[in-house]
Structures are given as C-alpha cells and as structure tokens.
Specification:
Elements lengths: L20 E6 L5 E4 L3 E5 L24 E3 L4 H11 L2 E5 L12 H8 L19 H181 L6 H20 L9
Antiparallel strand pairs: 1-5, 2-3, 3-4
Helix pairs in contact: 2-3, 3-4
Length: 347
C-alpha cells in the first residue's frame, strides 16, 4: 500500500511538530546511546533528519550496528555512557525544508542496504575504538557518494549550459528587437518633443484665457449673488401670490356656486321667456285684429259723422245716400256687437 504513494503524498513530520534543534550526539559517541533496564543500544538522529524538518545528508554510521552491550558483562560501558550523557550535543539550523535531501544521499541509501541486524542479547562486548577497515570502508562510501553527487552536478551544469546557450540566442534576438524598438522610440520621442512644444504654446494661450475667464467668473459670481437676492425676493412675492391665489380660489369657488345658481335661474327665466314670447305673439295677433276692427269702426264713425253733419246742415239726401246712411248704421251696429276687444268707452 505504501509503495503506491508518491513523494508529494508522504509527510515526514506532523503539522503541529516544530523543531528548532535536535540531539545529534553525546560525548565521544557520534550517536546517542540509549540506556535501558538491562542493556544499552545506539540511536542515530542524523539518519532521520527529515522527521525534524531538516535536510537529510549522509550520516556517519561507523560501528552503529555493533554497539549493543549488556550491563552484566560490561560495567565500564555504563559509566562511559553516563559520562557521555553529561555532555550532550545539539544541532540548530535556521534553514528548514520539508522532506529534502542532499544530492548524494539517495545514491548512498541504495548502495548501503536495507538495514542492519541487531546481534542477540548474549553477544560478546563490542569495542568503541574504530578499526582501520571500518574507517576505510566509511571513507570509501563517502568518496563514492561524493563522486556520484559530483557527476550529478556535472550533468546538471551541462544541462544548465545548454539552457544558457539557448537563452543567449534568444536574448541576442531580443536585443536586436530591443534596438529596433529603441530606434522607433527615439523617433517617437522626437515627435513627442515637438508635440510637447506645441502643447506648451497652447498652455500659455490657455493660461491667458484662464485669467480672462477668472475675471469673467468673478463678475458672474457678483451677478449670481444679486440673482440670489432677487430669487429670495421672488420667493417672498411668490409666497404672497400663493396666498392671494388661495384667496382667489376661495372666491372662485364661491363664484362657481353663484354661477351655478344663476345658471339654474337662467334656465328657469329662459323657460319663462319662451312662455312669455308665446303669450306676446298671441297678444300681438289679438292686438292686430283689434286694431283692424278699430280702424273699421273709425271709418264708420267718420262716415256717420259726415252724414249727420249733412243732416244737421239741412241738406237734403238722395235716396241712395239715405240707403247708404242706414247701411252704415247697420254695419256699425253689427261691428260693435261682434267686437270682443278692450273697452274703448265708459258706460
């Protein structure tokens, strides 16, 4: 299951653990001797630096697996371990990384092997003094790891050289382009300088215009203050006019009521006028008829007066005149009997 995990999915330390330093050795021992109830074993923190959050390098492992002693067989070892714990050595590092190693460490780890086998409990005591063969083997392993790391660095430097050469070509092309752009920018700069001179001339003209405008603005400000005073006066007059309008509205409302009343009266008068006109027409026709009758009566009276005057003067009448006289009297009597108008005489 753990083989399927990648390096990015594996965390060497917990997120809440933070170490500023670690215990690397004790006294003359290049590792940390751990004392138990019956024996003493070795522990090398330099082999697990990634668990402390530091960069892992190739540790010193000389006689690390052979250090296993029983207190019954070697009491001097217990005393030396006690003295070593009086002088512990701690290592601090300001550089903190997460799961990183040196370049030669992976190669050293592959060539070193999978691990060491702890000897049995009743094994013979081991000496703390390193043999020449162990020292030679350790130096050879370190030299091989150093050579491998150097080879890896050489390959990286060659790759960097190739990248730098390609970058140099691109930079030369970019330099040529920048030179062209520089020439274009110089031409644009000259044009911009000419435009700047023109703008300076315009600025001088605009500054003069601004001065004139400032003077005119001051005048307009004075006029505006006067206009504000006039506006205040107009507002006062407007308020008075509004009051007058309110009173006029009241008067207009009263007049509307009166107009409605007069309209109703006008309607009644118009109806009465129509009736009066009809009666006047009737009376006019009657008066015309009475006038005709009066004219006829007047003519009869004149005729009778003339005949009566002739009789009074003693003039003789002919037979025709006599018949005419009595005919007039008869017609007058008939007219008087048929007259139904206003009375023209007193009883």
């Amino acid at each position: 299951m753990f083989r399927s995990l990648s390096k990015s999915q594996f965390h060497w330390r917990s997120r809440y653990s933070y170490f500023k330093s670690y215990l690397a050795y004790c006294g003359e021992y290049p590792w940390v001797p751990l004392i138990g109830a019956r024996c003493c074993i070795s522990y090398c923190p330099n082999m697990v630096l990634r668990q402390f959050g530091f960069e892992q390098f190739i540790p010193r492992t000389t006689e690390l697996a052979t250090f296993y002693e029983d207190f019954k067989t070697s009491k001097k070892l217990l005393e030396s371990v006690r003295k070593a714990w009086k002088h512990p050595g701690r290592v601090t590092s300001a550089k903190r990384v997460e799961g990183k190693t040196t370049k030669g460490y992976p190669i050293w780890q592959k060539t070193r092997g999978k691990g060491y086998r702890v000897p049995p409990f009743e094994g013979p005591p081991r000496s703390l003094i390193q043999s020449t063969e162990d020292i030679y083997e350790e130096v050879r392993a370190q030299q091989e790891s150093y050579n491998l790391s150097l080879n890896a660095e050489v390959e990286e430097l060659r790759a960097k050289r190739r990248r730098l050469e390609s970058n140099l070509i691109t930079q030369e092309k970019a330099l040529a382009n920048t030179r062209k752009e520089k020439d274009d920018l110089l031409a644009q700069l000259q044009q911009q300088q000419l435009k700047f001179q023109q703008l300076q001339e315009k600025y001088v003209l605009l500054s003069e215009d601004k001065k004139r405008q400032d003077v005119s603005i001051k005048r307009w400000i004075g006029r505006a203050s006067k206009a504000e005073e006039m506006v205040l006066k107009l507002e006062e007059t407007n308020e008075s006019l509004q009051e007058q309008c309110r009173s006029q509205d009241i008067i207009i409302a009263n007049l509307d009521e009166r107009v409605d009343h007069l309209l109703s009266i006008e309607q009644t008068l118009s109806s009465e006028k129509e009736n009066a006109e009809r009666e006047a027409e009737c009376w006019a026709s009657e008066a015309m008829r009475y006038h005709v009758q009066a004219d006829d009566a007047k003519n009869y009276a004149l005729g009778l007066r003339g005949i009566a005057q002739q009789i009074a003067d003693g003039e003789p009448m002919t037979r025709n005149e006599f018949h005419r006289f009595f005919g007039l009297i008869r017609d007058g009597i008939n007219e008087i009997s048929t007259y139904d108008g206003p009375r023209l005489w007193k009883d």
